[in-house]
Specification:
Blueprint: H1 2-7, H2 11-28, H3 30-33, H4 39-51, H5 53-76, H6 82-107, H7 111-149
Length: about 150
Amino acid sequence: MIKNKQQGKYAGLVLFLTAVIGAVAGAVFYGDITVTVPAELLESFLTARIHGGFFGNAASSFITALIWCIVPFISGLCAVGQPAGALIPAFRGIGIGMTFTALMNTYGANGIPAFAVCVLPSAFMGTVMCCYQCRLSLSCSNSVLAVLRG
């Protein structure tokens, strides 16, 4: 039991670094992976974030974070759910990086404050929660696999 705790000591940090690397990859490969995001879509997103109020923004952030936490929960119940638990932070990071790049492509340098105020706080908290859930998912999946192996 102690050996298992020693192995998972830095799992959360590794998963968070995976999300950061995913964000960099999403920003770098934005033009290669997707089509350009229409400016009207970004404007409606920013308008909804700015005029949505505290509870509206909290609810939308919670629902988004909940979706990113359900998948690792389900993969933690499977004996072979480790790949999903390890890759989910990278996919989340890719989405955050693409959002940043889309704002930069549309608004130029003015996209940085919009990202920092409207997207980054909820993205950071959601990523921390997702990495914690993925760490637990990896641990549970490893436990299920160990029980099945005997």
